[in-house]
Specification:
Elements lengths: L1 E8 L2 E8 L22 H4 L7 H11 L3 E7 L3 E9 L3
Antiparallel strand pairs: 1-2, 2-4, 3-4
C-alpha cells in the first residue's frame, strides 16, 4: 500500500510518499541518495531498479530550490518527503 499526502504553507508545497514495505536499514539512510546506491537489504527482496531513481529525483528537487528527505524503519516502511518553493 502506498499513500501520497500533499500540503502547502509557509511558501512551500510538500509531498509525502508513504509505503508499508520492508523499510531501509538505518545504517543505509545516509547514503540513500547516492548514485547507484542500493540498501544493504535490497538483494534480499530483489527489487527492480538500478539505484538511480532517488539520485535523479534529489537533483531535480534541489535544482528547483527544494529539499528532499527520507524517514524509514526496517520492517515498517518508508516515507519519502519533499518540499518545493511556491512561486507566484
Amino acid at each position: 500500500k502506498i499513500v501520497i499526502r500533499t500540503s502547502h504553507g509557509g511558501g512551500v508545497a510538500r509531498m509525502d510518499v508513504v509505503d508499508e514495505g520492508h523499510g531501509i536499514p538505518k545504517k543505509d539512510l545516509p547514503r540513500i541518495f547516492e548514485e547507484f546506491w542500493r540498501g544493504g537489504n535490497a538483494a534480499t527482496y530483489k527489487p527492480d531498479g538500478s539505484g538511480l531513481g532517488l539520485y535523479i529525483v534529489r537533483g531535480i528537487i534541489e535544482r528547483a530550490g527544494g529539499k528532499i528527505w527520507i524517514e524509514s524503519r526496517e520492517g515498517k516502511g518508508t516515507t519519502v518527503s519533499f518540499e518545493l518553493p511556491i512561486v507566484e
